[in-house]
Amino acid sequence: MLDHCAIYPGTFDPITNGHLDIIQRASALFGGLVVGIARSKAKSPMFSLEERLEMMRLSVAHLACVECVSFEGLLVDLAKKRGARYIIRGLRAVSDFEFEFQMGYANKSLNAELETIYFMPALQNAFISASVVRSILAHQGQITHLVPASVVDFIKRKCHVDCT
């Protein structure tokens, strides 16, 4: 295990099994993992920042070295504030690569000491995205196989749907 701290940033609107898979694997590699939940007003999230933070805390409660925080502004500023040297990002498909590649270099240009580490999700989670979950929710579909079990009831109450 590395002694250093890493940050896994995202909107997590909502957290998916793919996100949790990456969090669990990254937390096993680092002495501390900060999950940074971005405000992301531009994305018009389905869930409020407070709701996304609560869902994340419910999902990672079993992971002692994971801390959940919300942030606004530049990721490099959060990394500096938290003493993180690594940024964790997920790559589901080739289509993710170009955006993540640009963001990795942009962050590196702002803080040369930051390294970005990319994780591929487990095969069973490769197709899952928060936007897919939101779309299924909008059509009253089943999401229990897409999100952590610890947040199903939370989402059900918030969305007033039977997602089981």
TrEMBL record:
Domain of life, per lineage: Bacteria
UniProt entry tagged with the keyword Metal-binding: no
Catalytic reaction annotation: (R)-4'-phosphopantetheine + ATP + H(+) = 3'-dephospho-CoA + diphosphate
Protein name, entry field: Phosphopantetheine adenylyltransferase
Residues the record marks as site: Transition state stabilizer: H19
Subcellular location as annotated: Cytoplasm
Lineage: Bacteria, Pseudomonadati, Campylobacterota, Epsilonproteobacteria, Campylobacterales
PANTHER family for the chain: PHOSPHOPANTETHEINE ADENYLYLTRANSFERASE (PTHR21342)
Signal peptide region: none
UniProt binding sites for ATP: T11, F12, H19, G90, L91, R92, E100, N125, A126, F127, I128, S129, A130, S131
